Automatic annotation (TrEMBL):
Lineage: Eukaryota, Metazoa, Chordata, Tunicata, Ascidiacea
Native species: Clavelina lepadiformis
Protein's name according to its UniProt entry: NADH dehydrogenase subunit 4L
Residues annotated as transmembrane: 6-37, 49-69
Keywords: Membrane, Mitochondrion, Transmembrane, Transmembrane helix
Keyword Mitochondrion: yes
Name of the gene this protein is made from: ND4L
Length: 86
């Protein structure tokens, strides 16, 4: 329940701030993790705790790759593709 309230407050605050791709990625990250924890009944520990750590690491890897692509710090991607401005 606390996670749901935090997620609602986070979504409202993101929607009130000026849009940027970075905020969209962070919002998607929170939504992704929220859906994983909700679907697996995090409080009941339906999955092994090691599995949660692996899922969280995968989600953070996706976020990190997206941020690197957005900021153009890897292979100068910003000059080849347009990912938006900050």
């Amino acid at each position: 329940m606390v996670l749901l309230i935090f997620f609602f407050i986070f979504m409202v605050s993101v929607s009130l701030i000026k849009f940027s791709p970075m905020k969209l990625v962070i919002c998607m990250e929170f939504m992704y993790m929220y859906l994983i924890f909700l679907s697996q009944r995090f409080m009941a520990l339906g999955m092994n705790m090691g599995m949660y750590i692996m899922v969280f690491s995968a989600a953070e890897g996706v976020l990190g790759l997206t941020l690197v692509m957005d900021t153009g710090k890897l292979y100068d991607l910003k000059s080849k593709f347009f990912f938006g401005r900050f």
